[in-house]
Write a structure and sequence with these properties.
The chain contains two helices and four strands, in the order E-H-E-H-E-E. With 110 residues, it is α+β, with helices and mostly antiparallel strands.
Length: 110
């Protein structure tokens, strides 16, 4: 199903995994809401995403072709409230000069 409109009832799962996908979805915030909707109380969402250290590069039509919708500002927003302080985003430089990070977050539904 579409990550923004999953065909499952609310609270259907104990665990949901979203691995290196969210950064390629323009409406990633709404996607997070949908993934959380699928969790039972006490359920866990495991999320990894690549962060582009420059400004997000997404544009309509390229979200599956390498566009990044999550940059440093969005990564810091995700870390706020979901990681113990001091939450930091560490950087890796790719051979082509692109600076990326991989964030791993665990969210537990109350």
């Amino acid at each position: 199903g579409d990550l923004l409109f999953q065909p499952f009832r609310e609270g259907s799962f104990d665990r949901v995994f979203c691995i290196s996908v969210l950064e390629h979805i323009p409406d990633w915030k709404r996607c997070l809401v949908e993934l959380a909707r699928l969790l039972r109380p006490g359920g866990e969402l495991f999320l990894t995403l690549d962060v582009n250290h420059s400004k997000p590069t997404g544009s309509p039509g390229d979200n599956l072709a390498g566009g990044f919708w999550i940059g440093m500002d969005e990564a810091k927003e995700l870390l706020a409230g979901h990681a113990p302080p001091p939450a930091k985003v560490l950087c890796n430089r790719m051979p082509d000069g692109t600076e990326l990070s991989c964030l791993c977050l665990r969210y537990v539904k109350e």
